[in-house]
Amino acid sequence: MLRILPALLALPAILALAAPAAPPVAATKPWREHYHGQALDDEYHWLQNRRDPAVLAYLKAENAHTEAATAAIAPLAKRLAAEMRKRTAASELTAPSRQGDFYYYSRSAAGQQYPLNCRRRAAADGSYDEKAAEQILLDQNRLAQGKKFFALEGLMPSPDGNLLAYRADTSGNHQFQLHLKDLRSGRELPLSVARVTSMEWAADNRTILLTQADPSTLRPDRLLRVSIAGGKPVEVYRERDGNFLLGIGRTHDGRFLELMAASADTSDTWLLPRDQPGAAPRLLMPRTPGHRYNAETHGDRLYLLTNKDAPNFRVVSAPLAAPQDWTEVTRPEPGTLIESMDVYRDFIVLNERTAALSRPRIYSFASGQWRGVQFDDEVYLAQANTEAAGVAGYDATSYRLQYQSPVTPPMVIEIDLASGARTVVQRQPLAGVDLGRFTTRRIWVTARDGVKVPVWLAYRKDVKLDGSAPLLLYGYGGWGFPSEANFNLGRLSLMERGVIYAEAQIRGGNDLGEQWHDDGKLMKRKNVFNDFIDSAEHLVREGYTRPDRLIAEGGSFGGMVMGVVANERPELFHAIVAAVPQADLIHEITDPTLPMVTYEYLESGDPKQKAAFDYMRSYSPYDNIKRQAYPAMLVTAGFRDTQAQYWPAAKYVARLRAHKTDNRPLLLKTDFTSGHYGASGRYDAIDGKAFELAWMLDQWGIGN
Predict the structure, then answer these.
(1) CATH top-level class of 35-85+439-583+632-700
(2) 150 exposed, middle or buried (CB, 10 Å; 0-12, 13-18, 19+)?
(3) Which of 111, 394, 552, 655 has an alpha carbon 20 to 30 Å from 530's alpha carbon atom?
(4) Angle at 471 (CA atoms; ends 652, 495), nearest 5 degrees
(5) β-strands 471-475, 550-555 pairing
(6) Which residues are catalytic?
(7) pLDDT for 56
(8) In CATH terms, are 35-85+439-583+632-700 and 147-289 the same topology?
(9) Is 378 left (phi over 0), alpha (psi -120 to 50) or beta?
(10) 525 near 440, Cβ under 8 Å?
(11) How many whole angstroms separate alpha carbon 283 and alpha carbon 268?
């Protein structure tokens, strides 16, 4: 008996370890601030100190709790990850794009996290020659070895093709280091510049112009000239206004480098001859608050995409020597937004958005006529992206774009600029899936103020629309970013299991033009949250789902939307996923040490103005947590995230746990190695997404 007594006494402790641990309880510490005569108490303010060991201990305790609470779904997450990996092409090849004497592309090999960046010499007639010898420029897998995070941006060969400049982030904080490689010898050159946000080669193959972020604010505020021969970078221009960000590019004809400064509502452009990198940049026109424009050159004329007297932009032309002597070229139809402009030797290509859909419009200098490009699908994404779609050079007679939909894998389409004829030059392979089983549709929701809000849906054709279906409603609604109806393997896994996926194109984006954006920012910000709630109510009322089958999801700014709707209408949602949420708006926007904080004043409001401060405080998720029942919630954060700090999520969860009156799950998962966009490797990213999908499926009671 004496020998078995110690074992009996130890049994309760063993059983306690086997059960999920109780949620961590964050310590409360007095902290009071005053704004506009108002006292603001913040008992979890201490969580903002990332150097405090107690903060790390709390975040790790939350991670341990999340891991224990979700142990049962680990097999499901593993199955989902395997499913998505199987559908991720073992070997992926991007459509080759010509620059100079070479065609550049990237390819991924089976089992590798990162791609190889490669090129082949063009054939004598200028076409792509797949039999030409392949040169591997960068093996990103080798560069990523021994690093917990690796991301590459701005791969840029010199004009003569002998050197390669590229930017790499190895910390996850979205701060990129400039590197230079000699493509003849394969040797890395001893040139390195920190915090590079954009860059361009001068025509001499020896000079790089780049923009650099401030080490404290992370605002790109300096234009530097760097010689590959070495020496200290030379400052060419510094932007003193904290609301403006700098970027460097070049005109499509390659004659000029373009320095651009942009705030949330105003922009400037300077031109610098590409063959005179030591010259001073020339400002095209004086800065005018509210005026936004982009510039291209064509012979002795400028083409400007401007919002002056045209909220949805118009195209004007002016002599290069007299940039303000405008002649209108075109303006869009009412309700249509011109998003971008590319000027070729013989054509202009506009990317326009109308009725929440994007499509190109082409102008021929020879005929003086415009030609629209139409697509038949009700829901799709046609993306004119130079890097992704391989837009050809200035002399091109064809134009490439990437086309996809929630039920159509991405394809690269080449459009003949003269005839409008289309050729599919590449399709993303997808084996073992009958996409004919799925469908998409767009509905229009009448918001509480009478405005029509578009919502697109994708689901299996045999799903019964009787209110019983599980539905995931996603929303963002900020910064003028539109909803993108892209193809997504994780979404496909949900739809295969009977889930309806819906995305509300709420105000705050530019889905229906610039007014749509304006109506969701500053003192109209609450339209964003109301639109999301009204969309959810419509989906319930019309029989797509019911509240106990409805999950909401949003990230970054969309994470703030999730926090607001959880406070305002918790009974409408069964569960909520808030990824890297902007959950503590007041402390984020009043802290001058945070990156890019003043840039946000024109989107959210200036906290120094009492009316703006009071309005923001009235909806900020952290400041409006109530003593009530909440949906089940999964909240994620990135410890290295410089765009949405880790601590708004941590503070939000701590305060919510102390106030909510229910026993539903409230989980916080902090990634200590990645930043705003999650894991960098393609398979690691799949694993992270599989966990979120498994958690949602578990909330719906769906296993396999």
Answers:
(1) alpha beta
(2) buried
(3) 655
(4) 120
(5) parallel
(6) 556, 641, 676
(7) 96
(8) no
(9) alpha
(10) no
(11) 8
Q: How many residues does the chain have?
A: 704
Residue 5, pLDDT above cutoff 60: no
At 297, list the tokens.
């050159």
Q: Where are the alpha helices (DSSP H) in 480-556?
A: 489-496, 514-518, 526-541
Q: Is 625 left (phi over 0), alpha (psi -120 to 50) or beta?
A: beta
The domain limits of the chain are: 35-85+439-583+632-700, 147-289
pLDDT digits (tens, 9 = 90+) for 557-574: 999 999 999 999 999 999
- Express each pLDDT in 380-439 by its tens digit: 999 875 443 344 689 999 999 999 999 999 999 999 999 999 999 988 888 889 999 999
The more confident residue out of 149 and 524 is 524
CATH code matching the domain that covers 147-289, chosen among 3.10.129.10, 2.60.40.10, 2.130.10.120, 3.20.20.80: 2.130.10.120
Quote the CA–CA distance of 102 and 110 in Å, as a whole number.
25
Tell me the pairing of strands 632-638 and 575-579. parallel
pLDDT of residue 465: 95
> Residue 229: which residues within 8 A CB-CB, separation 6 or more?
206
Edge-to-edge order in the sheet of strand 398-405: 381-383, 398-405, 408-416, 422-427
What pTM did the predictor assign? 0.91
What type of residue is 303?
Answer: Y
193-208 mean pLDDT: 96
Phi, psi angle pair for 552, to nearest 5°: -110, 150
Q: Residue ranges of the alpha helices (H) in 382-446? A: 386-389
Reference 201, options 239, 168, 162, 174; nearest CA is: 162
Of the pLDDT bands very low, low, confident and very high (cuts 50, 70, 90), residue 679 is: low
Q: For 324-333, which contacts have Cβ atoms below 8 Å and span 24 or more sequence positions?
A: 324/285, 329/303, 329/363, 330/363, 330/370
The encoded tokens of residue 76 equal 């499901």
Alpha-carbon distance of 313 to 662, in angstroms, equals: 50
The helix-helix angle for 489-496 and 74-87 (nearest 10°) equals 120
| Alpha carbon distance 350, 343 (integer Å) | 9
- 204 vs 209: CA distance, rounded Å: 12
Contact, 588 vs 601, CB < 8 A? no
Q: Find, among 573, 346, 565, the residue nearest to 471 by Cα.
A: 573
661 pLDDT band (50/70/90 cuts)? very high
According to DSSP, the residues that pair with 626 across neighbouring strands are: none
Question: What is the phi-psi region of residue 37: left when phi exceeds 0, alpha when psi lies from -120 to 50, beta otherwise?
Answer: left
The CA distance from 125 to 436, in Å, is 40
Residues 6+ apart with CB under 8 A from 694: 70, 73, 74, 76, 77, 80
pLDDT for 253-305, tens place per residue?
999 999 999 999 999 999 999 999 999 999 999 999 999 999 999 999 999 99
Encoding tokens for residue 679?
């894991």
Q: Could you tell me which residues are beta bridge partners of residue 34?
A: 39
Q: What are phi and psi of 536, to 5 degrees?
A: -65, -45
Please give the pLDDT value at position 12. 31
Give the burial class of 211: count Cβ atoms within 10 A of its Cβ; 0-12 exposed, 13-18 middle, 19 or more buried: buried
Per-residue pLDDT, averaged over 635-664, amounts to: 93
Average pLDDT of the chain, as a whole number: 91
Characterise 333 by phi-psi region: left (phi > 0), alpha (psi -120 to 50), beta (else): beta
| Contacts with 670 (C-beta within 8 Å, 6 or more apart), sequence order | 59, 62, 63, 636, 637, 638, 639, 646, 649, 650
Query: Which stretches within 88-180 are classed as H helix?
Result: 140-144
Rounded to 10 deg, the angle between the 526-541 and 557-568 helix axes is 60
Distance of CA 252 to the CA centre of its chain: 25
Q: Give the pLDDT band (50/70/90) at residue 111.
A: confident
